[in-house]
Amino acid sequence: MHNYTVFFVSDGTGITAETFGNAILAQFELTPRHIRLPFVDTVDKAYQAVRQINHIGQMEGRRPIVFTTLANTEVFEVVKDHCEGKLMDMFGTFVHPLEEEFGIKSNHRIGRFSDVSKSRAYHDRIEAINFSLAHDDGQLNRDLDLSDVILVGVSRSGKTPTSLYLAMQHGLKASNYPLIPEDFERQQLPEALKPHIKKIFGLSIHPDRLSEIRHERRPNSKYAKLENCQHEVREAEAMMRRAGIRWLSTTTKSIEEIATTILQEIKPETLTY
Description:
The chain has 2 domains: 5-117, Rossmann fold, CATH 3.40.50; 119-266, 3-Layer(aba) Sandwich (Rossmann fold). 46% of the residues lie in helices and 14% in strands. It has 10 helices and 8 strands. Helix 3 (73-82) links the parallel strand 3 (65-69) and strand 4. Helix 5 (120-134) runs antiparallel to helix 6, helix 6 crosses helix 10 (255-266) and helix 8 packs across helix 9 (226-243).
């Protein structure tokens, strides 16, 4: 279903509204058009936003979905009273019920969500992201002892996106290391990894899927041939079993599922949420 338009309306950047909205939309099999309307922080801008939303609805013959994070009550009232879209308000859905539960009023401060950038957790995550980028694909052997987790697996098995997800979402310093033909010939893990076996988690993938992914990167190469992919996956899984490394197949799993499994298995003490 491509004919839905979804608006993300905010008095700030709109990133929170979009993140919130996308998490909900991910539950449905549709690919709507996204329009972010940031910095709607005055009544005049609210009316402009309403006109745009209503115009799209009239053109498409279907009311748009509108996710909002508007802290200013006056601005929100304009959108609520005049918008012809289906309104999904983050404050109304979550903040107001919590006000009643806690017995106190929320700050309702414009841009409040951006305060996260001033927190220690935010800076820890930035440091984790930089660490993970520096230790991507075996680029850097130094400081592996500082890693919270080290991912291993054949090339294109999902190590890099998983490393970055762990860094961005959980503040973990994640290194990743490719298992290559030379390792299979020696039938041993790379020497740099051996002292850190307790931090290692393996990723594998079905050879058919691996071949498809590699063909997108290097069409008609030995690297992408199914026979080579079958050999590498077989050898990598055998190596991980011999070394006693915990591992999973990424073939049918989302990054969120992969990361959750890793967190349950590794249980790093530095875990942050």
